[in-house]
Amino acid sequence: MPHPTDQSAAVTVLGLGPMGRALAAAFLEAGLHTTVWNRTPGRDGELTARGAVPAPTPEEAVAAAPLTVVCVVNYDASDAVLRQAAVTTALKGRTVVNLSADTPERARDTADWAGRHGIRYLDGAIMTPTPAIGTDDAVFLHSGPRELYEELRPVLAALGGTHTHLGEDAGRAAAYDIALLDIFWTAMAGYTHALALARAEGVSGAELAPFAQGIAAILPPLFTEFAADSDTGTYPGELNPITSAASTMTHIVHASEAHGIDASVMRVIEGQARRGIALGHGTDGFSRVGEVIGRR
Ligand code: NDP
Fold it and tell me: Model confidence over 9-33: pLDDT tens digits?
């Protein structure tokens, strides 16, 4: 992993939730002079013990370094910090990397705001949990001016892992982020539902988990196949047509509801599959649903 060549480089981290603290810790570990600020005081104890400098206000924090990394819950929160007049003034001529999560539209709006105030701006998204930060496993996505990204690469490398610049459109990192989180949360919802359904049938989590791993292992090649289906607009269903898939979904709905377990998520998915069938796509594969749900 490359390290910043200039060990006296300074960075400010705004937001000390679990992720902000992990980012600040990685910067400290890499030897950067790290200033930290959080809306609620008292979150910086471990970091200051390791050499971070706490700033009393966000404007003093951003004035302490040429680069500010923001990592708060969403862009309402980053706006609440960055768009205070004193902070905006202090940021003029400096650089902000916003690693908070939100929508592509909010990322673009923040990039516009930064441009209007003479602030250099790179947007970003973090795709891995806090323990990965500073290790090879961390995954960061960035979008915005490529030149700025290249300039910041040595400092960003302190966060470990892989960094990918996705394009000049500031919203592009957030576009990947929301699509990838869509996979994550629907998968998590599916698994928590499966555990509840199994428990109601007297199957423990420990008994189900090894077989759940088997289901997870089926997914990677399907991700590649479905991506090709989506890109080409063809949805082959020879091996598992939507009619068959919808039938298994119905079983899940019935079994869940017989136990009084909310099956509304599966009902929606089943409904989407049945809509595909009603529109004449019953012999297509389940990937067809991704096209059907986008129709107006
Ligand atoms: P949270 O998403 O809970 O964010 C907490 C931080 O947001 C705290 O610093 C909190 O300050 C701040 N905050 C919330 N509202 C405001 C506000 N109105 N004004 C100022 N600050 C505010 O925790 P994380 O640190 O885990 O996440 C930060 C970002 O990183 C999020 O966008 C998250 O989606 C993303 N992320 C997190 C991952 C994780 O594993 N934790 C993984 C990948 C991405 P205060 O302490 O004062 O409440």
Answer: 899 999 999 999 999 999 999 999 9
